[in-house]
């Protein structure tokens, strides 16, 4: 009877021993399996841990933005600078609240970015910049700032008008409302481009006028675009531009008229072909007509001409001069003349410096030489006067920069 319990315990303990051995064997096999794989299991675990650590490690690239976030009354030039230490800039966007982007240039080494032009005044800008370190980790910075509100401003009054069709001699002429001392900054803020492309250069007349033209007359059919990005440009200390405008105009057919003051004739050439020869009267011996290349800047079907306004006292005051086209600021015109006998035209010079063509009073007869020339002319057409006993007209007396050679113009 004592043997039965002994057998029972042996029978019960054996499976437990076998189970323990099996568990031990299983554990050994599992561990041995990792070892038999060349330690990859251990390496994978370490790699995962390292990866997790790498994923949370901060980028070594730091983005720096000047001016500081939230800055007010920021200067429109020379202040905005974005840079990175410990990495390279990969993305830089600067835009105003309307989404107008600021053009800029990223340095070749990716370490810095600066705007290509000045910023607009009284404008809030948003900056978004991203940099990347050598490990490919990125960091970003977003800031805002607001530029100054100027107390004194200027604009540029330009010619020709937007959308106009002009003659081949028409320059782009901009007259500023304040004298400019920082001419380089102002000129940089104005671009003039042509299609087909041609080199266009600016020239300053004094400190308040800037003209642009190509070396030779525009080609007929040229499309010209003028961009005025003067907003925020400091034209002189404490005086800022407040103008952003795009102007386009088209150059029409080519018409160049040559007046021979000695022969009392005027020849009109269009697109290389003689259109008409017209008898004229030019300046009298005591009041000769300027020589040189002149551009029609204004047209009046009827206008008043008073000698007192151009230094001739009370010598004349004609209230209804017909078909008048201005050639200079000092009062040179091509215009109709109804008060001189018909025999004067083509034989005598009797004017006070203008070029006169036969006409009828009231400008109502389109068959007269003056009416014909007026109707066939565009603002921007060229009138060349030669063989007059006077000097060449000054380049800034009207839109007459063509009287300056290219080397002088581009100085």
TrEMBL record:
<dbReference type="GO" id="GO:0005576">
    <property type="term" value="C:extracellular region"/>
</dbReference>
<comment type="pathway">
    <text>Cell wall biogenesis; peptidoglycan biosynthesis.</text>
</comment>
<feature type="domain" description="L,D-TPase catalytic">
    <location>
        <begin position="255"/>
        <end position="386"/>
    </location>
</feature>
<protein>
    <submittedName>
        <fullName>L,D-transpeptidase LppS</fullName>
        <ecNumber>2.-.-.-</ecNumber>
    </submittedName>
</protein>
<dbReference type="GO" id="GO:0071555">
    <property type="term" value="P:cell wall organization"/>
</dbReference>
<dbReference type="InterPro" id="IPR041280">
    <property type="entry name" value="Big_10"/>
</dbReference>
<feature type="region of interest" description="Disordered">
    <location>
        <begin position="33"/>
        <end position="58"/>
    </location>
</feature>
<keyword id="KW-0012">Acyltransferase</keyword>
<feature type="active site" description="Nucleophile">
    <location>
        <position position="354"/>
    </location>
</feature>
<dbReference type="InterPro" id="IPR005490">
    <property type="entry name" value="LD_TPept_cat_dom"/>
</dbReference>
<dbReference type="InterPro" id="IPR038063">
    <property type="entry name" value="Transpep_catalytic_dom"/>
</dbReference>
<dbReference type="Pfam" id="PF03734">
    <property type="entry name" value="YkuD"/>
</dbReference>
<dbReference type="GO" id="GO:0016746">
    <property type="term" value="F:acyltransferase activity"/>
</dbReference>
<dbReference type="GO" id="GO:0071972">
    <property type="term" value="F:peptidoglycan L,D-transpeptidase activity"/>
</dbReference>
<keyword id="KW-0573">Peptidoglycan synthesis</keyword>
<feature type="compositionally biased region" description="Low complexity">
    <location>
        <begin position="45"/>
        <end position="58"/>
    </location>
</feature>
<feature type="compositionally biased region" description="Gly residues">
    <location>
        <begin position="33"/>
        <end position="44"/>
    </location>
</feature>
<dbReference type="GO" id="GO:0018104">
    <property type="term" value="P:peptidoglycan-protein cross-linking"/>
</dbReference>
<keyword id="KW-0961">Cell wall biogenesis/degradation</keyword>
<keyword id="KW-0808">Transferase</keyword>
<keyword id="KW-0449">Lipoprotein</keyword>
<dbReference type="InterPro" id="IPR050979">
    <property type="entry name" value="LD-transpeptidase"/>
</dbReference>
<keyword id="KW-0472">Membrane</keyword>
<comment type="pathway">
    <text>Glycan biosynthesis.</text>
</comment>
<keyword id="KW-1003">Cell membrane</keyword>
<dbReference type="Pfam" id="PF17964">
    <property type="entry name" value="Big_10"/>
</dbReference>
<feature type="active site" description="Proton donor/acceptor">
    <location>
        <position position="335"/>
    </location>
</feature>
<dbReference type="GO" id="GO:0008360">
    <property type="term" value="P:regulation of cell shape"/>
</dbReference>
<feature type="signal peptide">
    <location>
        <begin position="1"/>
        <end position="31"/>
    </location>
</feature>
<keyword id="KW-0732">Signal</keyword>
<keyword id="KW-0133">Cell shape</keyword>
<keyword id="KW-0564">Palmitate</keyword>
């Amino acid at each position: 009877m004592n043997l039965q319990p002994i057998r029972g315990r042996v029978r019960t303990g054996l499976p437990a021993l076998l189970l323990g051995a099996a568990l031990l064997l299983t554990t050994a096999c599992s561990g041995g399996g990792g070892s038999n794989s060349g330690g990859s299991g251990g390496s994978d675990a370490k790699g995962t841990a390292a990866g997790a650590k790498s994923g949370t490690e901060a980028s070594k690239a730091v983005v720096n933005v000047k001016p500081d976030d939230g800055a007010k009354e920021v200067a429109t030039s020379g202040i905005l600078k974005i840079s990175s230490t410990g990495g390279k800039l990969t993305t830089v966007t600067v835009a105003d609240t309307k989404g107008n982007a600021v053009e800029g240039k990223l340095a070749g080494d990716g370490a810095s970015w600066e705007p290509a032009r000045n910023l607009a005044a009284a404008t809030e800008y948003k900056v978004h910049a991203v940099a990347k370190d050598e490990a490919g980790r990125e960091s970003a910075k977003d800031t805002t700032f607001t530029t100054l509100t100027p107390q004194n401003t200027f604009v540029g009054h330009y010619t020709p008008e937007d959308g106009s069709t002009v003659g081949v001699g028409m320059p782009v002429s901009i007259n500023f409302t304040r004298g400019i001392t920082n001419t380089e900054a102002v000129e940089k803020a104005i671009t003039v481009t042509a299609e087909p492309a041609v080199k266009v250069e600016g020239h300053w007349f004094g400190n308040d006028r800037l003209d642009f033209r190509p070396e030779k007359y525009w080609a007929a059919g040229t499309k010209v675009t003028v961009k005025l990005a003067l907003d925020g440009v400091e034209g002189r200390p404490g005086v800022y531009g407040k103008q952003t405008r795009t102007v386009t105009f088209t150059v029409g057919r080519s018409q160049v008229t040559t007046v021979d003051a000695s022969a009392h004739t005027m020849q009109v050439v269009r697109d290389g072909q003689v259109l008409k020869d017209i008898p004229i009267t030019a300046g009298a011996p005591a009041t000769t007509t300027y020589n040189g290349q002149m551009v029609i800047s204004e047209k009046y079907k009827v206008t008043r001409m008073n000698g007192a306004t151009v230094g001739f006292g009370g010598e004349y005051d004609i209230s209804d001069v017909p078909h008048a086209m201005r050639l200079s600021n000092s009062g040179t015109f091509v215009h109709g003349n109804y008060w001189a006998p018909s025999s004067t035209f083509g034989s005598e010079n009797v004017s006070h410096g203008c070029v006169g063509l036969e006409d009828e009073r009231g400008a109502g007869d389109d068959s007269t030489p003056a009416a014909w020339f007026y109707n066939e002319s565009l603002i921007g057409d060229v009138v060349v006067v030669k063989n007059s006993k006077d000097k060449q007209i000054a380049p800034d007396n009207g839109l007459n920069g063509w009287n300056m050679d290219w080397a002088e113009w581009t100085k």
